[in-house]
Amino acid sequence: MHMKKQALLMAGWLLVLLTLGRCTSKQDAGAPKKVAVIVSTLNNPWFVVLAQTAAEEARALGYEAKIFDSQNNTSLEADHFENTIVSGFDAILLNPTDSDGSIVNVMKAKEAGIPVFCMDREVNSSKVATSQILSDNYSGCVALGVHFVQSLNKKGNYVELLGLVGDNNTWNRSKGFHSVVDRYPSLKMVARQSADFDRNKALEVLESILQAHPDIDAVFCGNDAMAMGAYQALVAAGKANEVAVYGFDGADDVMNSIRDHKIKATGLQSPQTMAKTAAQYADAYFKGKRDFAQRVPVAVELVTQQTISDYETPAKP
User: Fold this and answer.
1) What is the band of 31 on the pLDDT scale with cuts at 50, 70, 90?
2) How many CA atoms within 13 Å lie on the side-chain side of 314?
3) What CA–CA distances, in Å, run from 79 to 71, 108, 122, 222, 284?
4) What is the mean pLDDT of the chain?
5) Beta carbons of 208 and 116 less than 8 angstroms apart
6) In this predicted structure, what is the pLDDT of residue 9?
7) Cys bridge to 141: 156, 176, 207, 308, which one at CB 3.0-4.6 A?
8) Are 194 and 222 in contact, with CB atoms under 8 Å apart?
């Protein structure tokens, strides 16, 4: 008798579990898909625009979206990937922390059946991300290099501030710049150092460099945050009017500094274009598309003190 009661009880529990399972499946089927936006850092206004635009576009397309900040830490990025996989996200829009170090994270998502669309930065593999939407960094810095050479009349001493050494953008920008500038032997690079794409670090690094090389004519920076930091260092040293500063990104503060004849030039990327494209690709994936180009280049525009009038002043909040 006791055994019969146990059997009936077990059958009852199975019926309840099956019913709950069916209800959960119906709820999941009716719920909007979830998109994770994982960015390298939110400590840079440019990446804030990238993240917010991606999330807003995903929501506009009818999906839930959540932003994750990796704080330039591949381990933290790995935690975000684990979280998104376990939490049932359906796609990841990724701005990688490291071109090599991020590969394993993207691979985990792929193995879990979650498409990953890279924005602005790439991973050094053509087999893990569904698609990579990238600025044409090399060509953008070729244009900056031409302007650099012309502005300095083909001679002078300069400093280069590199971004994160593990990021392909750092080297693509540097290579594009040097493909032009290295043709002119009277242009001499007296120092080259990484400042991790960070404004405060660029300030500290250039202050140190200026102690050893006080007589420089220009500073080429791998992004706009470093350009602003470099400019601060030059102001503190009383050299802001003597040394030309070049950036890359098209961030609002640098665009305004070009208007004010402080920063010499920048390469204008479009975080909005890359972010929206990534979100739209995720939407297409959800609707059945699978044949995505592995790398999609987005053009970069040269912005100088002579052409800045072609660009609208950003609206104040």
Assistant:
1) confident
2) 10
3) 12, 11, 19, 28, 27
4) 91
5) no
6) 42
7) 176
8) no
Total number of residues shown for the chain: 317
Q: Which residues pair with 162 in a beta bridge?
A: 194
Instruction: Tell me the one-letter amino acid at 273.
Output: T
Number of H helices, E strands in the chain: 10, 12
pLDDT of residue 28: 57
Instruction: Give the span between the Cα atoms of 198 and 271, in whole angstroms.
Output: 18
Query: Could you tell me the two tokens for 58?
Result: 């995903």
What distance lies between CA 218 and its chain's CA centroid? 26
Q: Is the dihedral of CA 258, 252, 148, 211 positive or negative?
A: positive
d(CA 246, CA 223): 8
42-97 pLDDT, tens per residue? 998 899 999 999 999 999 999 999 999 999 999 999 999 999 999 999 999 999 99
Amino acid at residue number 277: T
